[in-house]
Structure formats: C-alpha cells, structure tokens
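seq:
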Amino acid sequence: MAKTLRTSGDYTIKTGTGASGSNTVFFDSKTTRVVGDLVVDGTRTELNTATMSIEDQFIEVNRGNSTADSEDSGIFFNRGTANHGLLYWDAGNDNFELGTSTNAPSVSTIDNITHANIKVNATPSHNNHAASKQYVDSTSASTVKIAGDDSSVISTGGSTDTLSLLGGRNISNTTVVGADSITFNLNNDLTGITSITSDASNGNLTLATNGTGDVVINDTLTFSAAASDPTATSVTKIYNKTVGGGGTGLFFINSAVSSGTAGELISKSKATALAIALG
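struct:
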C-alpha cells in the first residue's frame, strides 16, 4: 500500500558519518521520481543507465564559472583505452575545438589536443554551411568565376579588397580596381613564355615600359612576311615583305614620310653599288 512521510521541516537520511563516510543509501524500485528540484552536492555524479533522456532544450556546463570567458568547457567522450574524444570551448582562443586528448575530464584547462576531422553534408545548401572536401574539389575542378559585385559567383567584396593567387607563374597580390576589373601585378620576371597572342580581333599587342625605360630585345628579331603594306599613320611601322630594290625586304611606312609611301631599308651592298654607280 502507498505510504506518505510528511514532515514540517527538513528531513535527513544519513548513514554513518554522512558525506565524509563510506556508506551508501540505496533506492531499490522500478522508478524513483523526484518532484521538485534535485540538487547534488558532491564531486562526481555517475549514471549507470543504457539511455539518458533529457526534456530540457539546453544543457549548461561549467555552471560555477563566474569569470568572463576564462575557463575551457565541453564534453569528453570515453573511448576505452584510446585517448578521450573531446568537443570543447577554448576560452583562451575564443573558438570551439574538436579532437582527441590525453587530458582527463577532471582538468580545468585543456593543454593537449590532437585535432580530428569533422564530416559534413557533401553539398551545402546555404552560404553559411560548412563545405566538404568533396564539394570543394568538384567545384574547383570546374569553372570558377570571380566578380566584384555578382552574388551568384565568388565575390571579391569591396573595391579595396585583395585577391591573392599563390604559386603558378610568379603572379601574386592582385588588386580589385573599381567594380568590374581586376589588375594582376607580376612581381617577378616572366619565364618559360614562348608565345604572347592578343585575343582581340585585329587588336594591337602593346609592350610599354615604365617612365623613360626602353623596350630591349637581346636576341634575333624575326619579321613574318606581310601580305600587303599596312596603313600609314603618324608613327613608323616596320614590316617584312618580298625583297625589292633595297635588297633587304624590310620596309617602313609613316604618313609623314614621302606622303605615306612605303620605303625599303637599303642594304650595305646595295648602298655601296649605288654610291659607285652615282660616282
């Protein structure tokens, strides 16, 4: 039959010398229910159950901490004879860390951790979702578009941001200029280049020096044969075509010279012959 024990004040069950002793109080029943708050004052709470079910929405750890962000806290995972698994808040670095540790759950500060991998969804569906290696590899293997103001691609942000390309052919520290252009700065001499081609139809390829510097060619300069004379302008154009009276096949044209009529540079032998012929 049901029994109720009622007292008008506190009620204490004590065995031996109490908390300082070695005796135990056993509650042997199918269910033990505490109606009201349960406070356990001790150094260890141990639950020998197969499943723990908690109705609360949140679990607070490190409840006794009263100093702002000064103590590490988290969850240890027992792995038998292997090092503990650990997910904790690193108060010194202000970040969560995940891995294995030789530290025991009784420590107040984690001073040993071997970081472990975390597995996430292969295809993130939100901009703030963590991306898996598989997703990054498959994305980088295809076309990667970078834009200054297009949210559908990788954005470089503001006009003062820097996009760095590490490795490769000496290209680094590219600077976003304006909303729609990216400038690549080459910090070293280009090497291993065998061809430079303009991709614009009938477009020019310009070599420009800085300030009063010169464009220097240290080796042989070869001209391919031109199908026809180029259009004369106010600058001198040098080109190659079928050898004429000058004996070189190297022609020049300038709108300010001979009214823009093409002329052939004369060879030394031709010049000598003309000098003799003209006396």
